[in-house]
Amino acid sequence: MSIAKKGFQQYLLQLQQHPLRTKALTAGVLSAISDIVSQKLSGIQKLQIRRLILKVVLGCAYLGPFGHFYHMLLEKLFKGKKDSSTVAKKVVVEQLTSGPWNNLMFMLYYGLVIEGRPWIQVKTKIKKEYPTVQYASWTFWPVIGWINHRHVPLQFRVIVQSFVAMCWYVFYVMFKTHGPHQYPAN
User: pTM to 2 decimals?
Assistant: First the structure.
């Protein structure tokens, strides 16, 4: 048996035996990858380790656990059904609750903790950019939500979401870096 296959089997075993921990660590690793990629794409020459660690903390302490419990809650609310009508309802609920909440939490965390900006700057930036970020989110995430709720088993949904979030984060950072809405004196 190949090393990759053994590793994947071990991962599946950990996911079964310790689902919360495994999802949290997976979200942390994918957050690290997304930050390394976005730092390199935005032209940062020397890797910013503090920023990287803070992204890992966000993935492990918030994104993985939040997704774990949120998806379990949706399954209970909708009794595990996967018919088109129920999946559509799950996607709508997700896009009206966790989607906006996660975007807001990320923008707060990124501005206040990762960048260390004063509250007034972060608040101004959120007022200015949040509608654009949320609108972009609503043009993208419902498709992922549909696929996730319709075709992905519950134990893998946070992992799928974390993987896609890894790409979303790179997009967000590139938009922030090269887009029209930067902090003053950035």
Answer: 0.86
Q: Are the CB atoms for 55 and 23 separated by under 8 Å?
A: no
| Full residue range of the structural domain in which residue 102 is found | 3-178
Give the total number of structural domains in the chain: 1
Query: Is 184 among the domain residues?
Result: no
The b/e string for 30-68 (b: 16+ C-beta within 10 A; e otherwise) is bbbbbbbbbbeeeeeeeeeeebbebbbebbbebbbbbbb
Structure tokens at 96: 């009206």
pLDDT of res. 43: 85
DSSP output for 94-156: HHHTHHHHHHHHHHHIIIIIIS---HHHHHHHHHHHHHHHHHHHHHHHHHHHHHHHHHS-HHH
pLDDT, tens digit (0-9, with 9 covering 90-100), for 96-116: 999 999 999 999 999 999 999
Report if residue 185 sits inside a domain.
no
- Structure confidence by residue, pLDDT tens digits, 23-33: 999 999 999 99
- Considering the domain boundaries, does residue 142 fall inside one? yes
Return the number of other C-beta atoms located less than 10 Å from residue 177's C-beta: 15
The identity of residue 45, as a single letter, is Q
Q: Which two tokens stand for residue 112?
A: 């206040």
Nearest to 155 by CA among 62, 80, 54, 78: 80
| 75 conformational bin, left if phi > 0, alpha if psi -120 to 50, beta if neither | alpha
